Amino acid sequence: MRLREKVILITGAGSGIGKSTALLFAKEGASVIVNDLDSKSGDETVAEIREANGEAFFIQADVTDAKSVISMVEEAINKYKRIDVLFNNAGISGIGKLHEVDLDAWDKTMNVNINGVMLPSKFVLPYMMEQKKGSIINMSSCIAEMGLANRASYSTTKGAILALTKSMQVDYAEYNIRVNAILPGTILTPFVENYLKQSYENPEEAIEQIKTRQLSGALGKPEDVAFAALFLASDESKFMMGSPLYIDGGVVFGKNA
Ligand code: NAD
């Protein structure tokens, strides 16, 4: 029960890493506010948590839409009176080299992956500042630290999130609010399955190729990232501020032969 009595809002918790984290956080005693754009998957996450006797509540909202985010935060505060942890997890992929990239697709990736972190933070922060306590976890990616082919828009957004995390930390340290980033390697989720289908003729072959760049020799699982988020959400990480946490099977700091 490492998160007993904590109220935690997770964006994009209907699928993949967000869902896995919501299930783990509820098991550790948190009241979990499950957000997603997609109501069906969000409801499923909540149903799974409740089946396991956990506490959860679904709020449909689009993290790129200020009005939608404001009403999500108000609804969460009305229900639980506070938000102790915000996990800005929702995000989408973005593929292509810069000269080929479709401009609408570029804008969409910027909007979801950057504004989708900025807006929930902006509207949750005043409550955390009043509480004089909080932990914000921003989803970046190991791509913020390394060049990978065909990911110009996506890497731009995840680099921006790492920079934003550090700025936020400096501004809100005086309110006892911690802001850290998670940088996963390749984690097998619907997001990656779609990306592989869009980018490679043979996705199975692509998985084998990706495995070779991670020292682990295997892709990560959503639970691997959920355990990292658990540490950042709990008070065990109270001395961790403005930092990147790598969960990447060694892809950033290791090198295969
Ligand atoms: P996923 O596609 O399985 O889940 C993402 C969820 O976000 C979906 O349920 C989707 O409906 C939701 N979402 C998308 N746009 C939204 C919006 N505007 N408002 C609210 N919800 C929205 O993806 P995942 O692999 O679990 O990725 C989660 C996060 O982790 C993303 O930010 C992604 O960039 C990041 N990440 C993933 C990997 C990986 O390999 N899977 C690696 C590094 C970082």
Give a short synopsis of this structure.
The protein has 257 residues and is α/β, with parallel strands linked by helices. 48% of the residues lie in helices and 15% in strands.
* Uncertain runs: none
CATH H-tier superfamily: NAD(P)-binding Rossmann-like Domain
Rough shape?
Answer: globular
Mean pLDDT: 97
Structural class: alpha/beta
Amount of helix:
40-55%
The fraction of residues assigned to DSSP E strands is: 5-15%
| CATH class (first level) name | Alpha Beta
Can you count the helices?
8
Describe the structure.
By secondary structure, the chain is α/β, with parallel strands linked by helices. It has a single domain (7-188, 222-247), classed as NAD(P)-binding Rossmann-like Domain (Rossmann fold, 3-Layer(aba) Sandwich). It has eight helices and seven strands, in the order βαβαβαβαβαβαααβ. The protein has helices spanning 16-27, 39-51, 66-80, 103-131, 152-172, 190-199, 203-213, 222-233; strands at residues 7-10, 31-36, 55-60, 85-88, 134-139, 177-184, 244-247. Strands 3-2-1-4-5-6-7 form a seven-stranded parallel sheet, sandwiched between helices. Strand 4 (85-88), helix 4 (103-131) and strand 5 (134-139) form a beta-alpha-beta unit. Helix 1 runs parallel beside helix 2 and helix 4 (103-131) runs parallel beside helix 5. The radius of gyration is 17 Å and the shape is globular. The relative contact order is 0.15. The model has no long low-confidence stretch (mean pLDDT 97). Residues 11-12, 14-18, 36-38, 41, 62-64, 89-92, 112, 116, 139, 141, 184, 186-187, 189-192 line the site of nicotinamide-adenine-dinucleotide.
